[in-house]
């Protein structure tokens, strides 16, 4: 069985304004073929099975690594956590604590939370760039960080003899495990071409949005809308419950009306989201910290261009200031009957 990974141009001519290339599973123009054995591919580089490292095998990195192992890639798991590595060692993966040990692979996925962690992975005492032998790997930054941070790292990585693309994702751990993420890629076409056979096993949609940093910008803008949707949907659902409206009734209307968003597919989906993140203060505040990070990145991006963006500015202040009253709102939805 074969899968076609296709790339097509959009009708927009400016890469700064839209994604120039779209890589997906529906063939529009033939680009490359990947051999599938059963339902899984075994892509190769130079006639050998591709070697892929995943740096950061936590909530998102772990299911990504396991999907690639199942697809037949030679996978190295890299993490500070011995417990995380022990699980992968038991499953047959190579493991290491040091990103420098990953420099000999074809593709290195970096799945960490912050720009500081990204910088440490690439340039720290045991960073990947210190062990690169040209031609080095394609480093795929899957973290959501500012485009400026990625561009800075791109210069360092290229000087060391490797290449870099940014490829932040939309979708949580369940979609990572299912291989149905959305990936927004920024980078040189020849570098993206090397990463696509790997990314196609992790995502149902892969968009090449432009040069290095473009993927991060698109992801940050997407997250601004997602954060706003989550915060306002929580308040709307709490009001609905207190007014005697069932969550299913609310979701049914939202899904076919102008209030449609990623939480409105059903009452049970809406309830699951707030139950997952609203069942304890610790989990809630962890979620709010991510929303705040995304909102601040959006505000910083807005400040880098001309114009006035009061809603984006307010979103950053709101996300940073979410408190116990907001937790009570989320907890009320979690406790509601569906």
Walk me through this protein's architecture.
It is a single chain. The protein has 338 residues and is an alpha/beta fold. Helices cover 46% and strands 19% of the residues. β3 (32-37) and β4 form a beta hairpin. α7 (214-242) packs across α10 (281-303), α7 (214-242) packs across α12 (324-335) and α10 (281-303) runs antiparallel to α11 (310-320). The longest helix is centred in the last third of the chain and has 29 residues, at 214-242. The chain is globular. The termini are far apart. The model is unreliable at 1-42 (pLDDT under 50).
Which keywords apply here?
338 residues; six-stranded parallel beta sheet; 12 helices; disordered N terminus; globular; seven-stranded mixed beta sheet; single chain; alpha/beta
Runs in which pLDDT lies below 50 for 5 or more consecutive residues are 1-42
pLDDT averaged over residues? 87
Oligomer: single chain
Helix and strand content put the structural class at alpha/beta
Percent helix among the residues? 40-55%
Major beta sheet, strand line-up: 4-3-1-2-15-14-13
Any idea what the radius of gyration is? Answer: 21 Å
User: Span between N and C termini?
Assistant: 42 Å
